[in-house]
Predict the structure.
Amino acid sequence: MLIENCTVHFSVGMTIGSVPPSTGHACINNITFRDIYMYRPLKAIYIKTNPGTTGDGIISNILYENFDIFEPV
């Protein structure tokens, strides 16, 4: 998935998650965030994990490229 050329105001950020473990192998893979302009974000780049006890969850191949962040909270 490609997310690009975004202007974002007052956000939690460009977030990946939440990926809980699963016996069916939960995953997020091959995501690119590119050319992102953020104004007053609470969090700009954020990967949210979700703990558990059964199965697995994988977040891999995430690319954050060319971010401009102004006045972060």
Summary: Residues 2-70 form one domain. The chain is about 0% helix and 65% strand.
